UniProtKB/TrEMBL annotation:
Official protein name in the record: tRNA (guanine-N(1)-)-methyltransferase
Compartment list: Cytoplasm
The keyword S-adenosyl-L-methionine is assigned to this record: yes
Lineage of producing organism: Bacteria, Pseudomonadati, Pseudomonadota, Gammaproteobacteria, Lysobacterales
GO biological process: methylation
Name of the gene: trmD
Catalyzed reactions per annotation: guanosine(37) in tRNA + S-adenosyl-L-methionine = N(1)-methylguanosine(37) in tRNA + S-adenosyl-L-homocysteine + H(+)
Protein source organism: Noviluteimonas lactosilytica
Length: 255
């Protein structure tokens, strides 16, 4: 897929996408990332991209025209129709379901605001969707755009190797991941749960599933729809709860 980022700091987003899975997706031709700086479309020696808000108040608002021209230049760079997404605290919260939907588009244009935001008329005319990445205050849309780029890139066919795909699978089922351990078996910080050393793959799968269910119940009950769980999962969660409520679930790993 192709992603165009309209931003005063397009190289910031490009740097975030240069490493690991996303960098590899670009090398493999699964993702092409392009930056468009509204300052390059701002006229005059000052190249001004913002102005004071009508009605008064603090901060500055991004001007329509440099953003409009940057978006149109991005559109014209490829004949495929682009979905334009504005990253803003006023947007709907980004979820993995939304990521899957965005990842299926051949083209996205991600619009990043700075200052107080962009002129509302530009949003009404050019933007298809407004998205936020969560309820905290960032300094601009670039980190949010980088989050979108990362999340959609890894869903492109061929972006993940087999191991990464398998790991992805467990999270896509809406549960938190189970704990992970590697060598050494004995360490001053604790030991590895016996079951993982047993070689009994059915028992290991059962333990991991129980840990996933239990951690989701403890940490993210909002993700857990107990009615929707199967009989086996409910039994595992009950077993986890029984152990937890008996206080046998030592947090220091020495259980
Ligand atoms: C301090 C400025 N605020 C005054 C009420 C409003 C405000 C404007 C612009 C707050 C943050 C921003 C910049 N943030 C983003 O562009 C942004 C964002 C975010 O801050 N949190 C979560 N998701 C996103 S997506 C874009």
């Amino acid at each position: 897929m192709r992603v165009d980022v309209v931003s005063l700091f397009p190289e910031f987003v490009a740097q975030c996408a240069a490493f690991g899975v996303v960098g590899r997706a670009q090398e493999r031709g699964l993702l092409s990332l392009h930056g468009w700086n509204p300052r390059d479309y701002a006229p005059g020696n000052y190249r001004r991209v913002d102005d004071r808000p009508f009605g008064g108040g603090p901060g500055m608002v991004m001007l329509i025209d440099p953003l409009h021209d940057a978006i149109e230049a991005a559109r014209a760079a490829d004949p495929r129709e682009a979905k334009v997404v504005y990253l803003t605290p006023q947007g709907a919260r980004l979820t993995q379901a939304k990521v899957r939907e965005l990842a299926a588009h051949p083209r996205l244009i991600l619009l990043c605001g700075r200052y107080e935001g962009v002129d509302e008329r530009l949003i009404e005319a050019e933007v298809d969707e407004e998205l936020s990445i969560g309820d905290y205050v960032l300094s601009g849309g670039e980190l949010a755009a980088a989050v979108v780029v990362d999340a959609v890139a890894r869903l492109q066919e061929g972006a993940l190797n087999d191991a990464e795909s398998a790991a992805q699978d467990s999270f896509e089922h809406g549960l938190l991941d189970c704990p992970h351990y590697t060598r050494p078996v004995e360490h001053p910080l604790g030991h590895v749960p016996e079951v993982l050393l047993s070689g009994n793959h059915a028992e290991i799968a059962r333990w991991r599933r129980m840990e996933s269910l239990g951690r989701t119940w403890l940490r993210r009950p909002d993700l857990l729809d107990e009615q929707a769980l199967g009989k086996a999962d409910r039994a595992l969660l009950d077993a986890f709860r029984a152990r937890y409520l008996q206080g046998l679930d030592e947090p220091d790993g020495d259980a």
